[in-house]
Amino acid sequence: MTKGCSDVNGRGACEPCAAEDAVATSRRGFLLGTAGFAATMLAPGVTLYAMSGEAEAAGTTAPASSKVRWGLLIDAGKCTDDCNACVKACSATYGWKSTDPSATEPQWIRKVSVKDPKSGAHFSLPVMCQHCASAACVDVCPTGASFKRADGIVLVDRHICIGCRYCMMACPYKARSFVHETLTDQLPDAPRGKGTVEACTLCAHLIDKGESPACVAACKASGREAILFGDLNDPSSEIAKRVATYRTTRIREDLGCDPGVYYQNI
Fold first, then answer.
1. CA-CA distances (angstroms) from residue 220 to 78, 80, 198, 213?
2. What pTM did the predictor assign?
3. Distances (CA, A) of 73 to 92, 174, 241, 242
4. What is the DSSP string of 210-230?
5. CA dist 233 to 96, 210, 238, 257, Å?
């Protein structure tokens, strides 16, 4: 009821005030609904906080927890030059493989071959975003588009990425790419846009569903099982046990970035 309005008809608020109250109630309902929608769309594939009511019933995932540190353990001894199942799976999942030979090739994941010229020792391994605890890409981003979830996954929010590419220059692993071309046929779990930076997401949308990253599943299907995924913070997990038991290496560990990707036999 408008301030100063009197009960002129003996039935509560006057007709104009009743109409105002109805509009206000409708507006409040609309804002509450859009607030829930914004929560899920703030960063593609990422739920920043849990919701209740209808959204929870619809299957919204819980927020990332700092109790978990997702990571990978890659055994180069099981990885061969002629296998790129992990690369194909990543490309199929996110649609980043270009059919245009003149297009810039993304760097979500790539196979790297290394050979010691003295001993002749040779090995092949996949390299992707290392999902560092102290990520240089996050530190240099001027807009906050590069960010790290509580569970250690480093992502790019393309809604606020301005394409400055500072993160690409800061990354010691050459793990990020810039989208130069106009893109079509976008996938709902991985929308990509011209003028923005992109990188491996560790398949956050699959992890949030309780599944393994696409590269891990593809490597297992190939019979090599060279990539192990799990919670580094859980002493009972297979990945934590192996890291504690066997000699492992992290690429450029001397930089102090604390990568979440470990390697064996390199």
1. 11, 14, 26, 11
2. 0.76
3. 22, 19, 11, 8
4. T---HHHHHHHHTT---EEEE
5. 31, 17, 11, 17
Residue 244: which residues within 8 A CB-CB, separation 6 or more?
Answer: 235
- In tens, the pLDDT along 34-91 reads 444 444 344 444 433 333 333 333 445 678 888 999 999 999 999 999 999 999 999 9
Domains of the chain in sequence order: 70-264 (3.30.70.20)
Q: Could you give the count of Cα atoms lying within 13 Å of 235 in the half-sphere of its Cβ?
A: 0
21: which 2 tokens?
A: 């109250």
The DSSP code sequence of 169-188 is: HH-TT--EEE--S---S-BT
Shortest CA distance to 84 belongs to which of 131, 130, 121, 125? Answer: 125
- Tell the residue number behind the tokens 């001894």, with chain if given: 77
Tell me how far the alpha carbon of residue 37 is from its chain's centroid.
Answer: 19
The neighbouring-strand residues paired with 109 are 128
Q: What count of residues does the chain have?
A: 266
**Alpha carbons 84 and 99: distance in angstroms, whole number:** 18
DSSP state of 190: B
Tell me how far apart the alpha carbons of residues 259 and 79 are, in angstroms, rounded to a whole number.
20
189 contacts 211 by C-beta, under 8 angstroms: no
pLDDT tens-place string over residues 161-177: 999 999 999 999 999 99
Tell me: the pLDDT tens digits for 219-246? 999 999 999 999 999 999 999 999 999 9
Q: State which H helix or E strand residue 70 sits in.
A: strand 70-75
Q: Please measure the distance between the N-terminal and C-terminal CA atoms of the chain and give it in whole angstroms.
A: 74
Q: Which position has the token pair 């609904």? A: 33
